């Protein structure tokens, strides 16, 4: 029989359309040529490579699923997933940048914004000229966003915004922030622009995870936001949660890329590392570990592909996204840690990718709903009992 591809044992590639394969190849090339040569150094230095933004925009990776009339690539959901997978094969920080810009900032402007807001912001955001961030989480507890303290009060034609947001990806890079605030009519979204008096961002330092990504706290001290910057077409928690469903969908694919990167590098290493007169890959202990990684990667690939097909049919449900986010991030973090172990001492430096991915995935397993939150969403679905 023809040898199988160790990172695609079930030939998922053959289930993709020509266009989807082309998207995957294009982003894979970008990761190989532009991300991998610099990313270890970016992580060490705690630097997000802003120089890659114009190229990501050029490739159509920002707001990739939104319509072409707003300057976007109009890709389907599976293609967007493949974008996330190939970017995260480079680094979770690069995929985070694309997730936040696309699913958490451009999507709400598209889905909940006015036509003027769409026209004003989306083409510039697709071009990478306007960068966005998404402020939902607050310092007192991100898992329970319904309990938010940030509030907006009507003042004539404007809104006055007060509060704080924590752990915000792209915070100090961003030109605009999509900020969710409590109002007399429930939670609403506002486009807060950099430079509006009273709006400040403060970068989070000392991170051991997602070091090649900007993370910030945002502060709002009587920020005057015009009515034209309120997202008019949604009220309530379903606004931000609807954005999270889009981003979480992409995050089910991303960690497959991180796991593939770790697995590939470690398999090669194990074939070449000779101990007790044979490569460690020739020991049963290491082979079982590598085989088990291949098994788990294959399952995750099938899960995300089917999820993507459901999304493209318009029938994907949030619980299905929760199951895949939980499974696939858990799969990747476990694989990254096991790969780190197989590399021995060599595994503790960023010369090899597993420790970087393992550390990054500590954020991925926490953000966009912690593993526990997703387990409880699935638990609620199967029992009909809300345990939050
Ligand atoms: P509940 O009060 O029952 O529902 C409120 C309304 O929302 C609807 N809904 C959803 N809609 C779309 N997508 C979803 N996933 C939805 N989940 C719920 C729901 O139907 C209801 O609508 P309506 O019309 O009846 O008002 O809320 P719940 O009990 O379902 O929510 C509880 C819980 C814990 C699941 C939710 O609060 C939650 O998901 N918490 C976690 C918060 C979270 O994930 N934060 C992430 C912040 S952003 C981030 O981390 C970015 S990192 C990005 C990067 O760098 O890549
Ligand atoms: P908490 O909600 O305080 O949770 C603490 C612990 O309690 C967790 O282990 C949790 O699983 C557990 N827990 C919660 N509820 C229950 C329960 N009912 N039963 C049992 N255990 C429970 N947020 C944004 O809005 N925008 C961003 O761009 C963004 N980017 C991020 C980037 C990074 C690098 C990180 C680390 C976070 C980012 N976040 C962002 C925030 C992220 O979404 C939150 O960290 C996450 O939702 C968890 O909130 P928390 O950190 O306040 O933890």
Automatic annotation (TrEMBL):
Its cofactor is FAD. GO terms for biological process: fatty acid beta-oxidation using acyl-CoA dehydrogenase; fatty-acyl-CoA biosynthetic process. GO terms for molecular function: fatty-acyl-CoA binding; flavin adenine dinucleotide binding; glutaryl-CoA dehydrogenase activity. Keywords: FAD, Flavoprotein, Oxidoreductase, Transit peptide. It is an enzyme of class 1 (oxidoreductase). Residues 236-382 form the Acyl-CoA dehydrogenase/oxidase C-terminal domain. Residues 133-223 form the Acyl-CoA oxidase/dehydrogenase middle domain. SUPFAM superfamilies: Acyl-CoA dehydrogenase C-terminal domain-like, Acyl-CoA dehydrogenase NM domain-like. This is glutaryl-CoA dehydrogenase (ETF). It comes from Dokdonella fugitiva.
């Amino acid at each position: 029989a023809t040898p199988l591809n160790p990172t695609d044992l079930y030939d998922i590639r053959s289930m993709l359309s020509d266009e989807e394969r082309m998207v995957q190849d294009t982003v894979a090339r970008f990761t190989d040529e532009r991300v991998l040569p610099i990313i270890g150094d970016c992580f060490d230095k705690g630097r997000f490579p802003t120089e890659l933004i114009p190229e990501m925009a050029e490739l159509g990776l920002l707001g990739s699923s939104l319509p072409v009339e707003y300057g976007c690539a109009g890709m389907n959901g599976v293609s967007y997933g493949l974008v996330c997978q190939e970017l995260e094969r480079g680094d979770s920080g690069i995929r985070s940048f694309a997730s936040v810009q696309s699913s958490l900032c451009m999507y709400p402007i598209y889905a909940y914004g006015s036509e003027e807001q769409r026209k004003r912001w989306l083409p510039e955001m697709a071009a990478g000229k306007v960068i966005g961030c998404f402020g939902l989480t607050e310092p007192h507890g991100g898992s329970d966003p319904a309990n938010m303290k940030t509030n907006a009060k009507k003042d004539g034609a404007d809104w006055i915004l007060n509060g704080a947001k924590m752990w915000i990806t792209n915070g100090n890079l961003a030109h605009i922030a999509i900020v969710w605030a409590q109002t007399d009519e429930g939670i609403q979204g506002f486009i807060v622009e950099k430079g509006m008096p009273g709006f400040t961002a403060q970068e989070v330092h000392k991170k051991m995870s997602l070091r090649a990504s900007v993370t910030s706290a945002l502060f709002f001290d009587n920020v005057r936001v015009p009515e034209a910057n309120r997202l008019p077409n949604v009220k309530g928690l379903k606004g931000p949660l609807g954005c999270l469903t889009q981003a979480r969908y992409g995050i089910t694919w991303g960690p497959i890329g991180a796991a593939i990167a770790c697995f590939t590098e470690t398999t090669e290493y194990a074939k070449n590392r000779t101990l007790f007169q044979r490569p460690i890959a020739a020991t049963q202990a290491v082979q079982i570990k590598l085989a088990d990684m291949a098994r788990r990667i294959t399952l995750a690939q099938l899960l995300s592909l089917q999820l993507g097909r459901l999304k493209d049919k318009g029938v994907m449900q949030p619980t299905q996204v929760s199951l895949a986010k939980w499974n696939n991030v858990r799969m990747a973090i476990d694989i990254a840690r096991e790969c780190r172990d197989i590399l021995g001492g060599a595994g503790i430096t960023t010369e090899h990718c597993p420790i970087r991915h393992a550390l990054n995935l500590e954020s991925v397993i926490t953000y966009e709903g912690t593993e526990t939150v997703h387990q409880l969403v699935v638990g609620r679905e199967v029992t009909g009992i809300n345990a939050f």
